[in-house]
Amino acid sequence: MASTRDWFESVAEARRRARRHLPAPVFQAIEAGAEAGITREDNVRAFTEIRFAPPRVAELPAQRDLGTSVLGTAIALPVIASPVGVQAVHPVGEAGIARGTAQAGTAMGLSEFASLPVESVIRANPSLFFQVHWSAGRHDLHLRAERARAVGASALILTLDWAFASGRDWGSPWIPERMDAAAMARYAPRLLARPGYLARWLRCGARPDLTVPNMAAAGGPAPGFFAAYRAWQQVKPPTWADIAWLRAQWDGPFMIKGIMRPDDARRALDIGATAVSVSNHGGNNLDGTPASIRALPAVAAAVGDQAEVLLDGGIRRGGDVVKALALGATAVMIGRPVLWGLAAGGPAGVANVFEILRAGIDRTLLALGRQSIGDLTPDDVLLPSGFTVPR
Ligand SMILES: Cc1cc2nc3c(=O)[nH]c(=O)nc-3n(C[C@H](O)[C@H](O)[C@H](O)COP(=O)(O)O)c2cc1C
Question: Are strands 381-382 and 51-52 parallel, antiparallel or unpaired?
């Protein structure tokens, strides 16, 4: 269906609307990748290098089955929302992602850096996986995970694909510690250039909340985003023994996000991970490392059927999802597309993004003559030589 005021027909159009709606620093913060953005670009470009096997013309399945299960949760399509902090994108914050994903019949990751407490977000979508980084000592991480579990988070995601990238060639946007009067005054010219954005916040009587309530010490106040980030930078990176310890604390599905190497995938299996996500944090880990889709086949081969394999990074259409599934993914996660959808249309915009992907997956299965996503195999795609990271 062609785009209308309340509907966008492609993820590219959601991004254009987000760019027009958001103040430049907010849009840029979503857009950014590490350093020159080589990996960020490769995440998207690599999908264009993969082609489909020639389509079939008859005996095509009249109905296609897109449902699957991830981390013990049944989902209507093999796409979930990747954890992202959405501090300034929309006044409804992560609750908007929860409502949009619930409408789409799928699950969401909720970042510890989210602007809303897990207790309120999970009310809008009970299919919620809570995500932490190795951002604190064992005691505090345990408390954070326990808090999420107590309200019903059904899985824990440990993200290890962030290496504190800085020195971005397109410049890091200035983001204030607090949205106080001084910060508002400094932002005023940019806010006035985006009257729709300003009006949306004024209508809600809110201002972007730059605190991170899920990282509060027990009973303490929510720390500021940057204070929490600086504290994380002081934490020693985890060992596999640390990761095994965290896994042992969580009595339920456990995913490690950021696995790009078969040897790390095997270590993840050793510590009992339920799933791994092949990810470079949307091009925000070490710049110049490969697109996540290039690393997927080797990781999927190392994991076999011992765990679920997810992929995130660069998914922009349903066909991209099918390519990832054909190369061994159980499902995929999307980051920026969710944020663009939220900026463009709130919870309905998030649901719109998932509907675009759902329809795209369905059409691709039809053309390939596959009745279900479980029927996809590597024979459904054509890879150029040298595409994959060697096993
Ligand atoms: C603005 C922004 C914030 C993010 N915040 C988090 C986070 O808090 N935790 C996390 O695990 N990943 C975070 N990510 C990474 C995403 O979960 C995901 O790996 C990435 O966005 C996937 O690539 P895509 O944006 O091309 O879909 C963030 C990504 C972006 C763009």
Answer: antiparallel
